Structure formats: C-alpha cells, structure tokens
Amino acid sequence: MISDTSYNLILKNCNFTAERFSEGCESAIYNAAADFGDIDQYSIYTPKCVRTKEMHKTVISRQVLAEYDPCTESYAEIYYNRPEVQRAMHANRTAIPYKWTACSDYVFNNWNWRVSDNSMLPLYKELMEAGLRIWVFSGDTDSIIPVTATRFSLSKLNLPVKTRWYPWYSGNQVGGRTEVYEGLTFVTVRGAGHEVPLFRPQSALIILRSFLAGKELPRSY
Question: 25, 63, 146, 211: which sits with the fewest CB atoms below 10 Å from its CB?
C-alpha cells in the first residue's frame, strides 16, 4: 500500500531500536501513512465506517448481521458508554473522566514504556520452556499487526519446524495457512482483519477447537 520511495526512506532514516525517532524518520513515516489513504487499517479490504448522527438511534434496534459491519466498533462505543448499561454491568464505578473506547488513547498516552518489554519473544520462550502450547494467529488483511511482520518476528526464535507450511480448511474453503514449530503453531486466517472472530467467526471457532483438542488444523473438508 506504500510506494517503494516511502519504503526506502523509512529504511534509510529510521532506527526502530532508538528511544526517539529522528525528524527524518518522523517525516518518512508520515509520508508512508499518507500513501494508505483513508482506509480501515485493521481490515484493508472492507469499507471504512462512516459515522452519522443516526448511529445513536440505530444501535437501539440493530440486529445481528450475517456479514461484517464496519461500524460495529462505533455501535459498541455508543452502547457501552450509556449510563444504564454501565450500571447494569457494574462498570465505571469510579466515574473515570473519559469515555470507554475499544482502544484507549488515554491508556496509550499514559503507558510507561520504559518498564515494558520491547518484544514478546522472550515471554514466548519462557512459556514454551514451561511446557505451555502457544498458537499465534493473524488475519491476513490486517495492516496494524500484519502477517508479514509476525512471520518476521517468529523467525527470530529459530524454532525447528515440525509440520511445514500448508493450507488449512474452514468448511469447504481454505481458511488460511499454518506452520507448526516445536512449542508454537503459527496460523494465518484468510480474509480476516485485526479481530479474527469478528471477520471470520467460523474459522476462529475451528482454530479454538483445534487448539483445545491439541490437534493440527484440518487439511481438507
């Protein structure tokens, strides 16, 4: 979604291990972001939600849809910020001074990054050494945590491959691809964005059932 020029400028100007980005890096990232256009970066091939004044009325009578609704998150934010809903859920008992959101800018902006791990990989190693099974799944239309970046990160673990890359099935269609390593299984979900169960509920259920049963994903339908 970004041009070769933008990509090469990021490689030239950015050091992602530095505590702060340089001015050149900030500029390169800004220009690359502009290449995306006004899309939903959590699901790059679905329409973007267009907020309207009618949403507050719609959320009252809205029924469960068979297909993905790009405004699902907006409906949820309206619903969960209603005082009567929060009372029924025993939520916001401390009367926080900001609205509930699916992703909180308040939490993000006030997070203490200095005491946080820069990577999940050491934690993965610790959990695998303790004998826990780990499945990492990723929707292949998500640009926020894309499949390519996840594969790049997992490759740094240098895990032996138990079962090589193969397509797995959801119903009579390819549900995605998977590769099984010693201690970790990686799964892609075809056509899913950031929140896999929201976009591909049947595929998400197959992944969950396979994980709980300790079985590899189905190779056929």
Answer: 63
